Amino acid sequence: SKIPSTPFDRPVLSMIDAVMLLIFAGVGKASHNTIDGSLDIGAVVQTAGPFLVSWFAVAPWLGCFTPMATGDWKESTLTTSKAWIVAIPLGCILR
Fold first, then answer.
1. Dihedral of CA 43/45/47/50: which sign?
2. 12-67 pLDDT, tens digit each
3. Residue 76 predicted with pLDDT over 70
4. How far is CA 43 from the centre of its chain?
5. Percentage helix, strand, coil, to 5, in the chain?
6. Whose CA is closest to 55, among 2, 27, 1, 16?
7. Phi and psi dihedrals of 11, rounded to 5?
8. Cα dist. 57→41, 54, 63, 75 in Å?
9. Buried-most residue among 4, 15, 48, 88 (CB within 10 A)?
10. Measured in whole angstroms, how far is the alpha carbon of residue 4 from the centre of its chain?
């Protein structure tokens, strides 16, 4: 049997990743760019876009969607940390 290793193999996990990146961008936009804390959805998507692209390019390559990567907290933290070390700077470059 095929071991899940892409975002398409683990759609719920992929959706959670995408939503969390959008929430993170939304909080950042609301706290840094407006006086009243209002939220511009277009600006949030524009900010999150490069990070979504970098995450979904890097995470599968580094094994974030495999069952082993989500089997326990230690492995999950290690695998995700490795992916973020690459994905965050790549997202900044893309932005």
1. negative
2. 999 999 999 999 998 888 877 666 666 788 989 999 999 999 999 999 999 999 98
3. yes
4. 17
5. 70, 0, 30
6. 16
7. -65, -35
8. 23, 5, 11, 20
9. 48
10. 18
